[in-house]
Amino acid sequence: TIANGGYRMQPQIVQEIREQSIKEEEVGKVIRSIEPVVLNRIDMKTEHIDRIKEGFRWVFQEGDGTGVKYFKNAPYKPAGKTGTAQTVYGGDDPIGRNAKGERMECYNLTLVGYAP
């Protein structure tokens, strides 16, 4: 929603369906286009959305943000948010325990990104 300037879009995997092409370097004719659907727009000033977008870009391209080491020299302008949550498995479940049966720390890593 932030990447789209505040417009919340219906999730969509396919943009278009094409005929197959005989030539490897060409794509076939479009059989069907699937148009994006706007669900709504968040009630937020454009300048605030732009500020958040700049922060997301900073995470991937500037300073010492988590994504910088992976995206700083990308040939495009990626942006996004990373997150890490430390947790410990509990209970009697053997999953999350080492060979001695001790609980192990684990990390829940997330990355949500976009690129124009």
Report on the structure:
The protein has about 120 residues and is an alpha+beta fold. The chain has 2 domains: about 1-45, no CATH class; about 45-115, no CATH class. It is built from 2 helices and 6 strands; from the N terminus they run ββββααββ. It has helices at about 45-60, 70, and strands at about 5-10, 15-20, 30-35, 40, 80-90, 105-115. The strands form 3 sheets. The chain has a two-stranded antiparallel ribbon. It starts with 6 loop residues before the first strand and ends with a strand.
User: Order of strands across the widest beta sheet?
Assistant: 1-4
Largest sheet: 2 strands, antiparallel
User: What is the percent of helical residues?
Assistant: 10-25%
Structural class: alpha+beta
Number of domains: 2
Pattern of helices and strands: EEEEHHEE
Organism: Bacillus wiedmannii
Domain Penicillin-binding protein transpeptidase: 1-116
Protein name: Penicillin-binding protein
GO molecular function, one term: penicillin binding
What is the fold's blueprint, element by element?
Layout: E1 7-9, E2 16-18, E3 30-33, E4 38-41, H1 46-61, H2 68-71, E5 79-88, E6 105-114
Antiparallel strand pairs: 1-4, 2-3, 5-6
Task: Please summarize what this structure is.
The protein has 116 residues and is α+β, with helices and mostly antiparallel strands. It has helices at residues 46-61, 68-71; strands at 7-9, 16-18, 30-33, 38-41, 79-88, 105-114. The chain folds into 2 domains: 1-44, no CATH class; 45-116, no CATH class.
